[in-house]
# Entry
Amino acid sequence: MSIFLAVKKELLKVCCITAVTTLAAGTISTAQAQGLVLTFDDLEPTNSVFEGLLIPNGYGGLNWDNFEYLDTVLFNANPSGYINGTISSPNVAFNRFSNPATVSRRRGLFDFNSAYLSGAWNDGLNILVEGFYGGIAKYSTTVTVNSTSPTLFNFDFLGIDSLKFSSFGGINAGYSGVGFNIVLDNFTYTPQPVPEPTAILGLITSASFGLASRSKKKPEQKGTSKI
# Structure
């Protein structure tokens, strides 16, 4: 029984070491990974002077809910925060109908690094940006933007699976439109590596076989030492 307990403890130790090693490797890989900059300029042309198109799920490896994009070169409402908030031409993203909009990763976690934000119609627009992991808010930051120029914000939300943007407040800048629309450009994020379950299972299985082999040899060595 004592040998069994000893083997069990060794197995638990190996499993813990394996998990920590895998996590550390993932952390190092994330630190070394380059942030991806999504400019929205490589999306399908909108061909419209008034309307935008929904950002399709899968763009940039992410899911997009209630986010649209429009071509600021074609957009007829000039001046506006859409045009003033453009970093890379021609497209910018915005929250449809001023409603909350979310971004999530299709598989695994990611770090939300930074983004350029503006107000489409309002100066002093408040934008609540929340980072979630497993449905629980891990980060929450409110920033204030104007419609005259974009502002770069470094969020550094680490290890999240979704983002939520909510906008409110501000004063209409006197343009032809109204609403609490956000202008988003040059969205930068870093995808975290996804551990391969088969690789982790293989390491634990190999360790288990090795410990089992050692446990069988121990009684024989003990008996020999008594002779």
